[in-house]
Specification:
Glycinamide Ribonucleotide Synthetase, Chain A, domain 4, 14 helices, 29% helix, 25% strand
């Protein structure tokens, strides 16, 4: 493991400060190179009176709003529907994020010049296309490009056609055929719904019976199609890619914790916490991901006539044979986005505008030397049924913890009181010189929050902490 001489004590180098420029989508990318300085940015496209709409109401959107609010030119930020945390940064407007016509009307009323689409549902429903047709600039891929997230079957078929490494799979539209196939498999067996399911449409079954039950449940929940694939052994991590269809820019790495309980046990969730950057995605491995997975995907999407422009989130399994694609998301991951935004030093608004305007080749990215970790506090009972409306106290005191920023994910106002109003409610995010330090700060803040009925994992970042502990022990033994 390569250790940098300065900054991020004990942390592996990552290749976040680099990008892959293309002279055309078909051109070969250049070799990775470290970028220590951001190129001079020309703000000719960002007016001092620019009106910006951030669509969404979760922790991801709060983090994006927070990062964009640091740009002195973004003087008017509209969040729809937003949340109490976002209300401190701009104006919140109620809206149904699936109503494209209402969103266009809001843009006209508020004189919006740039829309940042946070959640996946509006993207898959074609909001970016609608806004483009209305002459409103937007960040986010088209509906056809969003199929990379909207249909796992589409993505798996793309991988198969273009030799992009992923787990072997089969697609099924009826339960009888699916069960017949499962009965021939050796566990563990992965069963997925074809469409979106907020991170909860995947079951890793340790035996045939559970896999059959998972298939039956998914079809009963109105899944028109399911995917059954081989289980991949390795370590999961995520790579965020900003692209305008011509230039590929890595925009951070992270490791999420999908399962509900400590030790990666229990049911899958939308994400219980994350840290960034990810140890396992060092320079060499990220280079392989770009070469073997990202570049072929961007080229393939262009070849089939659906170029991808926006944020491509690659969920990866790092196996003994190399990186393999688990899934794509067509937007920022949640809660990984929170850990990445708190580290980003570059101007996020400039980068997103550059991607939307196909001018990304002019920009590079710089990062805070610290690492970051976020702990997701959820309503007890999540991801199943839970009770909303309980009062949350201590947020101001918790926010005073060194290096901590709290993002609202599922909160509401009841009079002057902040209450829990969703499954995932708060993202307590902290920076530190190491993952160990960031985690200590995040949990110190969590312990100051008074909220009956809350639940959170106690071991976020456990793999990184174990690595750091081993590394420090090795360093001390050499002294």
């Amino acid at each position: 493991m390569e250790i940098p001489k300065t900054g991020n004590k004990g942390f592996a180098q990552t290749s976040e400060n680099v990008k892959m420029p293309f002279t055309s989508v078909k051109a070969k990318h250049t070799a990775f190179r470290e970028q220590q300085e951001t190129k001079p940015h020309v703000n000719t496209k960002i007016k001092s009176s620019m009106n910006i709409l951030i669509l969404g109401s979760g922790g991801r959107e709060h983090a994006l709003a927070w990062a964009i609010s640091k740009n002195p030119t973004s003087t008017r930020l509209v969040c729809a529907p937003g949340n109490p945390g976002m209300a401190d940064l701009g104006i919140c407007r109620p809206i149904n994020i699936t109503d494209n016509a209402a969103i266009v009307e809001l843009c006209r009323k508020e004189r919006i010049e740039f829309v940042i689409i946070g959640p996946e549902i509006p993207l898959i429903a074609g909001l970016a296309d609608v806004l483009k047709n209305e002459g409103i600039k937007a960040f986010g891929p088209s509906a056809s490009a969003s199929r990379l997230e909207g249909s796992k079957g589409f993505t798996k078929d793309l991988c198969q056609k273009y030799n992009i490494p992923t787990a072997p799979y089969r697609r099924f539209t009826d339960l009888k055929s699916a069960i017949s196939y499962i009965e021939q498999k050796i566990p563990p067996i992965v069963v997925k719904t074809d469409g979106i399911a907020a991170g909860k449409g995947v079951v890793v079954a340790t035996n045939v019976r559970d896999a059959c039950e998972a298939a039956q449940t998914l079809f009963a929940q109105n899944s028109e199609e399911i995917i059954i694939e081989n289980y991949l052994e390795g370590e999961e991590a995520s790579l965020f890619i900003l692209t305008d269809g011509r230039t590929i820019m890595p925009l951070g790495t992270a490791q999420d914790h999908k399962q509900l309980l400590d030790g990666d046990q229990g049911p899958n969730t939308g994400g219980m916490g994350a840290y960034s950057p990810a140890y396992v995605l060092d320079n060499k491995m990220t280079q392989r991901v770009i070469n073997e997975i990202i570049t072929p995907t961007i080229n393939a999407m262009d070849e089939i006539g659906t170029p991808f422009r926006g944020l491509l989130y690659a969920g990866l399994m790092i196996t003994e044979q190399g990186p393999k694609l688990i899934e794509y998301n067509a937007r920022f991951g949640d809660p990984e986005c929170q850990a990445i935004m708190i580290r980003l030093k570059s101007d996020l608004l400039e980068l997103l505008l550059a991607a939307a305007e196909e001018k990304l080749e002019k920009y590079n990215v710089t990062w805070d030397e610290h690492v970051a970790l976020t702990v997701v506090m959820v309503n007890e009972g999540y991801p199943a049924s839970y009770k909303s409306g309980r009062e949350i106290k201590g947020l101001e005191a918790a926010s005073q913890t060194e290096g901590v920023k709290i993002f609202h994910a599922g909160t509401d106002m009841k009079g002057e009181t902040i209450v829990a109003a969703g499954g995932r409610v708060l993202n307590v995010t902290a920076k530190g010189a190491t993952v160990t330090e960031a985690r200590e700060r995040a949990y110190a803040a969590v312990n100051q929050i008074k909220w009956p009925g809350s639940f959170y994992r106690k071991d976020i970042g456990w793999r990184a902490v174990e690595r750091e502990t081993q590394l420090f022990a090795q360093q001390n033994s050499k002294k």
